Fold this sequence. Notes:
- It comes from Carya illinoinensis.
- This is Reverse transcriptase zinc-binding domain-containing protein.
- With 156 residues, this protein is mostly helical.
- The protein contains six helices and four strands, in the order H-H-H-E-H-H-E-E-H-E.
- The strands form two sheets. It has a two-stranded antiparallel sheet with strand order 1-4. A two-stranded antiparallel sheet has the order 2-3.
- The longest helix has 15 residues, at 2-16.
- The chain is globular, with a radius of gyration of 18 Å.
- The model has no long low-confidence stretch (mean pLDDT 79).
Amino acid sequence: MHEENALWRNILDVKYGSIWGGWCTKEVRGAYRVGVWKFIRNGWNDFLGNCKYEMGRGTQISFWHDIWCGDVALKSAFPSLYRIALDPDSSVAENMCSTAEPIHWFVSFTRVAQDWEVGDITDFYNMLYALKHRAGREDRLLWTCTGNKKFSVRSY
């Protein structure tokens, strides 16, 4: 089953390309022989609104844009820090060192923090260090509408 899913993912990736992290194909353009996939792909944003990422290696999760740490994306939870992020498009893996437990976080900013930002920086790092890390595992996309975090058509 896992090999079959990987095969379909590769076929779709070759045909349409994928968005950051590889979770979904790029938006489908064209009118000929793409109708079904175009319809499915158009529902991605609605689908993603019911999902949350679970960090493993952190290579497929956008640090600031995806919901993986708390109930909202970090750019929404800490907008003042997002504005001064050195790399707002970085992955989770690019901001952490996980060679040993616990993880060490190294988030770079364009300038040093101002006095009024110290509280946000403290809350930010407290949130990051409170995370449970699944070392060595792949990142996962979890469905938030069911107790077992697995997608079902009925729950959608």
